[in-house]
Design a protein that fits this description.
The complex is a heterodimer of chains A (239) and B (471). Chain A is of the alpha/beta class and 239 residues long. Helix content of chain A is 52%, strand content 10%. Chain B has helices at residues 7-14, 17-41, 45-61, 63-76, 87-101, 112-116, 119-125, 135-143, 159-168, 178-195, 221-227, 247-260, 295-300, 314-318, 322-325, 336-346, 351-354, 366-370, 377-390, 402-408, 411-420, 435-443, 453-461, and strands spanning 80-84, 105-108, 129-132, 198-201, 205-207, 213-217, 231-237, 241-242, 267-271, 285-291, 464-465. Classes of the chains: A alpha/beta (239), B alpha/beta (471). The interface between A and B is large, with 75 and 85 residues. Strand 1 of chain A pairs parallel with strand 11 (464-465) of chain B, so a sheet runs across the interface.
């Protein structure tokens, strides 16, 4: 089952389509439960745990069953398998929530470590700066993304300085603390631009939306793509 | 840009670019140095962090037993042990110790816990001269400033500002050469050591097993402070206890590398008690004042993990928010991620005054990743956010979540809203109906609204079903 994320719902239709096409191209049948909405992270991060619990339980219900749930966002995936541990620590009746946590995969982790896809056919002659989103710290997503993108001939992966630095998005943080958020993003953007990449790529659309939005406002020239869009585009080009 | 009314956001906006850049470049260098040093010296530094975290968590969870053990060992070694439940009682205890000896001139080595109880101001009012002997703290003191970093108190100052302060306070004509500044401070402080009749320190660790106190410095000032006079007073937070001497190897190796990318600080002192008969110098009298000041309450809370902290400052260095604010943005003695957890907790009934600090984080988790005792700081920030929410503490500029939860649990409403959102493509910025959107758009653009597009595409492919819900 695909959890497309609320940002795909609102803005990033193409990224969600790319996710479907990439999963299908490696032999998956993709099911999209129509009633899906959001992982509940905005409420969770705001400290409104009762609201987050409602959304989280609702989402667990939408994705009930035994199929793996694939999320093209390290952040939303982490809400399922990490955030819920805190949210439900003293709660009863957590079977569905735990089941969803156990079946949730971040997309690249799923492709490489779940399905064993280690090589992506095709060619793309571009310098790519990889942004590892904060919520994939300590997970296998970063290495998985490097494995697949790095296997495409012609791609040069460049390291971005201050890898520890957040993009400044942080969900509601970006609007509640607008100056901090913008300046944090600026530090990251400058590290990225130092490498003069052709593309800025991440496994999280939210970071790209923030950095891309900051850059565009300043007329900076930087193109952002979700890593799965790169895979899809490479496949399309080689057909 | 209009004010967000979040104090730390306003502080960052008003902070001079010069100060921001000084802080940023210093901590970015420290962060890279820390990582390089740990990775060069250990095959699996992460394993050490996790082990140290477990040892400290165990200690914190058995703190009453270890404190008793430490008290007995210290007493056996000849030190006098005091327990202070509040900042006020700690100040009074220290004053009484000084009065009993007729001491009026005290030299101090660097100690955040003495900052926490505002000891200098209090003692000065009681006629006791307090002289900070750590160079950074000395500069803070002559400027009437407060530390902006746990380890590098003057991270917000540059050498020109220091040279100006020295000139103003009669420490020589303007000269911003760091070596000259250091020599002048040294000359000034040597006199102060010789005139002193008491030496004050904190402690980095206290071994419950042996009663050994460990103090680390890079300037040797704590040694001078104790060699020059007959009275040593150590003020120690109760969480500084570790079970055994052999645990110190683990913690000292992590502390130096995490704090300053040093294998070990230049001076590491193990103090076994007051001067023994065979020793030619050193304090004849030693007092250890254990400070609670709200720590027991933290211990009883679900945020108790924060008491593992060994004050290395690595979380400050790596924190994207700290990098924009310095410690002063946190309005409390402890800044950065550890301060955002600790300050609201230590504030006790004043929790609402600091409830904004745990929210001033993108929850990026960099702090957790570098913490030498593996404190899950983002989780603790979330716990405090939840507590603020439960206590009904309002947060300026924060979007309300109840409407979001209603939408996100009503699929028809959600899908209608998604499709309707495409109307946003035709609205000018000032017409954007939602305040958070306006805040976003002041410094960023948004992508094109494409609500409903993916769902329509997916439906046409036949990949949509109703999911697991039983309606």
């Amino acid at each position: 089952m695909l959890m497309a994320t609320c940002l795909s719902d609102v803005f990033f239709a193409d990224m969600a389509k790319a996710t479907v096409e990439v999963l299908e191209s490696v032999g998956c049948e993709v099911i999209f439960p129509e009633d899906q909405t959001c992982c509940g992270q905005p409420a969770f991060n705001s400290g409104d745990f009762p609201a987050a619990e409602k959304v989280s339980r609702y989402t667990a219900d939408v994705f009930a069953g035994d199929l793996p749930v694939i999320v093209p966002s390290g952040s939303c995936a982490a809400m399922h398998f990490h955030g819920t541990q805190l949210l439900f620590e003293d709660k009863q009746d957590t079977g569905e929530v735990e089941s969803l946590a156990g079946r949730t995969w971040e997309l690249f982790d799923f492709l490489v470590n779940g399905l064993g896809v280690k090589k992506w056919e095709g060619e793309l002659n571009k310098r790519i700066a990889l942004h590892h989103s904060c919520h994939t710290r300590g997970t296998d997503t970063g290495a998985a993304m490097e494995t697949l993108l790095g296997s495409i001939s012609g791609i040069e992966l460049v390291k971005v300085g201050t890898p520890e630095q957040c993009c400044g998005f942080g969900g509601t943080f970006s609007v509640t603390f607008p100056h901090l958020s913008g300046e944090i993003g600026q530090v990251k953007l400058e590290s990225v631009l130092e490498q003069s990449p052709d593309l800025l790529v991440s496994a999280d659309m939210s970071c790209l939306m923030h950095m891309g939005g900051l850059a565009e406002k300043q007329n900076m020239d930087i193109e952002t793509r979700h890593a799965v869009q790169v895979l899809r585009d490479v496949s399309l080009a080689s057909q | 840009m209009s004010k967000s009314s979040q104090p730390i956001d306003d502080f960052a906006r008003e902070l001079s670019r010069e100060t921001r850049d000084a802080v940023l470049s210093s901590v970015v260098t420290r962060t890279a140095g820390r990582k390089a040093k740990l990775e060069a010296d250990y095959k699996d530094p992460d394993l050490l962090r996790r082990l140290a975290g477990k040892v400290k968590q165990h200690t914190v969870e058995h703190l009453d037993e270890y404190l008793e053990q430490a008290e007995a060992a210290l007493t056996k070694n000849g030190a006098k042990v005091h327990f202070a439940s509040t900042a006020e009682s700690a100040r009074e205890t220290i004053l009484e110790i000084l009065r009993n000896k007729g001491a009026t001139r005290m030299v101090k080595s660097k100690s955040m816990v003495t900052e926490e109880i505002h000891l200098n101001d209090f003692l000065e009012k009681q006629g006791v001269e307090c002289v900070e002997t750590d160079l950074g703290e000395f500069i803070i003191q002559i400027d009437g400033d407060t530390p902006s970093h746990i380890v590098q108190p003057i991270i917000h100052k540059n050498r020109r500002q220091v040279a100006e302060s020295f000139e103003k306070h009669g420490l020589g004509a303007y000269n911003d050469d760091p070596q000259t500044i250091t020599h002048r401070a040294r000359k000034h402080l040597r006199e102060k050591y010789l005139q002193s009749d008491a030496g004050m320190t904190g402690a980095n660790f206290v071994s419950a097993e042996s009663g050994r106190i460990v103090i680390v410095t890079n300037e040797g000032n704590a040694r001078f402070g104790m060699a020059a006079n007959g009275l040593h007073i150590a003020l120690v937070g109760i969480e500084k206890v570790v079970p055994r001497d052999k645990d110190l190897g683990l913690f000292l190796n992590l502390l130096g590398r995490s704090a300053t990318a040093q294998q070990l600080t230049v001076y590491t002192q193990f103090i076994n008690g007051p001067r023994s008969k065979s020793q030619p110098s050193g304090p004849k009298e030693m007092h250890v004042v254990f400070l609670d000041n709200g720590r027991s309450k933290v211990l009883a809370s679900k945020e108790r993990d924060i008491l593992r902290c060994i004050r290395c400052g690595a979380c400050l260095n790596v924190c994207p928010v700290y990098r924009q604010t310095s410690g002063h943005g946190y309005r409390a003695v402890y800044g950065g991620p550890v301060g955002a957890v600790l300050s609201p907790l230590l504030a006790g009934d004043d929790f609402p005054k600091y409830a904004d600090l745990p929210k001033a984080s993108s929850l990026c988790g960099a702090c957790h990743e570098v913490c030498p005792v593996n404190i899950p700081i983002p989780e603790l920030l979330l716990r405090l956010r939840s507590r603020a929410n439960k206590e009904g503490i309002k947060s300026a500029g924060a979007p309300p979540m109840a409407p979001f939860a209603r939408m996100a649990t009503s699929p028809k409403l959600w899908q209608t809203a998604m499709t309707a959102s495409r109307a946003m493509n035709h609205l000018p910025i000032t017409m954007m109906p939602i305040q958070p959107l306006q805040a976003w758009l002041k410094i960023r653009t948004l992508p094109k609204w494409r609500g409903g597009e993916f769902r329509k595409w997916m439906k046409e492919r036949g990949g949509v079903n109703s999911g697991g819900r039983n309606e």
